Hints:
The chain is mainly α. The chain has helices at 2-16, 20-39, 49-61, 66-85, 112-120, 128-143, 147-151, 181-193, 195-198, 217-230, 241-252, 257-264, 269-275; strands at residues 158-159, 164-168, 174-178. The protein has a three-stranded antiparallel β-sheet. The longest helix has 20 residues, at 20-39.
Amino acid sequence: MQNLIAEFLNYISLERGLSQNTFLAYKRDLERYSSFLKKKGKTFSDVQPDDITAFLWEEKEKKKATASLARNLAAIKSLHRFLVSYGFLKEDITNLISSPKLGRKLPQVLDIGEVDALLEEPTKEKNWQGRRDKAILELLYATGMRVSELSDLTSARIDLKEKVIRCTGKGSKERIVPFGQKAAEAIRKYLKTVRPKLDRKNSDYLFLTVHGNRMSRQRIWQMLKRYIRAAGIKKEVSPHTLRHSFATHLLQRHVSLRVVQDMLGHSNLALLVEKFQAPSTK
């Protein structure tokens, strides 16, 4: 692989007229890329888009800026195009990877302690609303669902025995997402003690308001903000805060990017790397 990188660097030095700084940055980027592939037992001929995405994620965990990640990918794409053009490779698999968009603000995520504090807040209310809200927050964090997906969730699409939901995301794409025991217990309690009293209209929706209507995305967002404040969390949050936290905590535990992508219903792996942070475990 080093010989091919040397060929490429010689090409860009002579043909593309890159500045010395850019040339050296490409050289460092590609040396790290080839070292990463060697550790995985891969060569340029059998590398897959997931390998490149995993490399970018590893770079991101080293606190590399978005601009650096964009340059990393630009160097890799240029290398692969060169290798295809000169017959060293048959196809350019980097065409399947989108470049990170510069200037995109990373979403705020909660650490484990903050999530625990948030999930505990509804239990302090000791009423029907607290039991409903506890089930909502537990399910949001346990599955990484979008708030809009949870708002549209019907009772028929949740299986408490198997602990899975059938979630309909963007583009009407359906995915199966598992959840844990804590979320299951909170939902069972809500279904047994709260929902029958709220269901005045024989609704199909799982989460209902006091008037028996579907919990709208806006109402869930207002509820989330209220519990964030009550838990003493000072971070800037969004309707997707628990979704982002869910994804980040899974990646921090070394769950594969592909698994996280499938659970989130996220279409672009490179964007996933750009979007979600991996906070320190210290």
